[in-house]
């Protein structure tokens, strides 16, 4: 039996500082894997340029002219990490037996791909890369991530703990993934839903080799909220519960204040009034915001807009001539 064709998909957004090194290291690794007969000689690296404003595409394009195993996919505009990843997965699917997704910043130990391949040979269709410890992440990131996992779990969404988007999937898995047509696809939630034979491989996560994180706090929060609202309606239920509780509490206090009033106490009542106005106002706004969040989701989904737009696909359609890019 011949070795499986592996494609390593790397989403890149403004990664010019680290990309040359990433390409070098991944090419080295691929060569080793081919020599060890773990993967076929047809295996490729697919770099997805997610609408970068820097020279990321030039680096990818030039590398693809020099090295036959390096391929590029250029998105017409920035579609976000998840969408860039999906673009790469779906483009690579036809010509690959299995696909590994990894970030461009070399934070994830690339040598673990060897373990991924061994697991694939053992018959696993999904292999999750799981971080041993997160001591290279900032204190804040570590704890916010921890809180996120706990929250997701409490809301009944099963995601793999300390697993980012570093994983191997067989072609079959990616084909099934394609049937999930929601525009807002949260991979870490969907992949475990697919089933299939899966396993985990542990590794140490390092610091970003160069460049800055493309996930500042704002994006991280949006990502977390997206994850929760696309999988769980618990927040809506929780809000209704809070509504009921505050309703009964206010009934109780109303009765109590009436009782005081008829027994001769002339309280000004300002404190309780103002507190309840603020409290209820706050709760109502939270509730409205949450409902808006879901409605926004429905709105986005009903439009059925494409998740990403491909400008150039050098993986499936290699260019005959160099062009000005
Ligand atoms: N990324 C992307 N599009 C974006 C933001 C990020 O393709 O809009 C890529 C980025 O180049 C990197 C990966 O997604 O390869 C993860 O981003 P980053 O390392 O900045 O996130 P962090 O590890 O800090 O969470
Ligand atoms: Mg990173």
From TrEMBL:
Alphabetized UniProt keyword annotations: Glycosyltransferase, Membrane, Transferase, Transmembrane, Transmembrane helix
The keyword Transferase is annotated on this UniProt entry: yes
Topology with respect to the bilayer: Multi-pass membrane protein
Keyword Transmembrane helix: yes
Transmembrane segments: 238-259, 271-295
Compartment(s) where it occurs, according to its Swiss-Prot or TrEMBL record: Membrane
Alphabetized SUPFAM superfamilies for the sequence: Nucleotide-diphospho-sugar transferases
Residue ranges occupied by any Glycosyltransferase 2-like domain in the UniProt entry: 7-177
Predominant location category: membrane
InterPro entries in the cross-refs: Glyco_trans_2-like, Glycosyltransferase_2, Nucleotide-diphossugar_trans
Cellular component GO terms, alphabetical: plasma membrane
One function term, GO molecular function aspect: glycosyltransferase activity
PANTHER family in the cross-refs: PROPHAGE BACTOPRENOL GLUCOSYL TRANSFERASE HOMOLOG, UNDECAPRENYL-PHOSPHATE 4-DEOXY-4-FORMAMIDO-L-ARABINOSE TRANSFERASE-RELATED
Annotated protein name in UniProt: Glycosyltransferase involved in cell wall biosynthesis
